[in-house]
Amino acid sequence: VGTSGNVSVRSADGCLVSPSAIPPHLVDAAAVVALDHDGTPIGPGIPTTEWRIHRDLYDRFPQAQAIVHMHSTYAVALACLREDLPSFHYMVGKAGGDVIRCAEYATYGTQALSDNIIVALGDRRACLMANHGMLAYAETMPKAQALAVEVENLCRQYLIARAAGSPVLLSDEQMLDARTRFARYGTPASRD
Fold first, then answer.
1. What is the pTM of this model?
2. 50 an active-site residue?
3. Which of 59, 69, 80, 138 could be a cystine partner for 143, CB 3.0 to 4.6 Å?
């Protein structure tokens, strides 16, 4: 909605990020901002206010090649409750753990927010951001987008389930089994 959210891809020099204060439908290749490894812009343009998140995640997670941060409705709703997304559905494991954690609140665009996100991610590839939104990373932009959409869908399903009652959570063993299967998903071994 409007100019909320941002995306980036890793580059040889650092990363390419979406610009600040430009609605997505007006962003073209010329508007994309290149940042070096320290987060300093290379060339013209003003990077997203969340550039620190992108810089820090690429530094901390070598497997991250693309990042999607969005203020999607259901992820924001759950993040405003400052709750983790628990193991109510095996697809939570797509983010790499038994729960999708909610990062502690910090003002947007600050180093504190970036630090909180890194803590919440830990060994996972997605997190909620308290009173803010959500973030996902992956090896490609299509995979990062797909994971972000999946997290939004899971937040929607969880909030609907909670409105109807108390969702039954999967056990640690059941979630481990699902994550093990995800590691083989789309390979010949997935037929096992």
1. 0.94
2. yes
3. 138
